[in-house]
Specification:
three-stranded mixed beta sheet; 41% helix; alpha+beta
Length: 139
């Protein structure tokens, strides 16, 4: 799941040569200082209430999944609490193209299904085996 903001506004990125606010103020139109984008990424540094909410959810998960552990789990949970948060920002007219592009990109990434198999093995309830009692001789 990717957090997304869909807008009707045009999106722009400043050209590398634009270095001052004065040059932006002097421009008569956006295309003089920026290039239009169909979509882009926005970095959002989580704070306060969101971090507290995430921490509460992580503690709840830990409490209800005590026997579900694997190497690196604590790092992953810490990342959920304090990690980077990227948001997709897309113009409504380009939403389909952005989704197709991201879908294609993610499908092209190398897959590691070993973690999935490991998690499946961890989650399976352990079969209870009955110990066979030695046969008693009848006389």
């Amino acid at each position: 799941m990717i957090p997304t903001i869909v807008t009707t506004a045009k999106l722009f990125t400043l050209r590398p040569a634009v270095q001052t606010l004065e040059s932006i103020r002097e421009a008569k139109a956006p295309h003089e200082v920026a290039d239009e984008l169909s979509w882009t990424w926005c970095y959002y540094a989580a704070h306060g209430t969101l971090l507290e909410h995430n921490n509460t959810e992580i503690e709840f998960w830990k409490k209800h999944n005590k026997d579900l552990r694997w190497q690196g789990l604590e790092d992953q949970l810490a990342y959920l609490w304090s990690g980077l948060h990227w948001v997709l920002v897309v113009n409504i007219h380009n939403l389909g193209n952005a989704v197709r592009s991201l879908h294609h990109t993610f499908l092209a990434l190398p897959k590691d299904f070993s973690r999935t198999r490991q998690l499946s093995a961890i989650r399976k309830p352990k079969a209870k085996t009955r110990q066979k009692l030695p046969k008693q001789r009848t006389q």
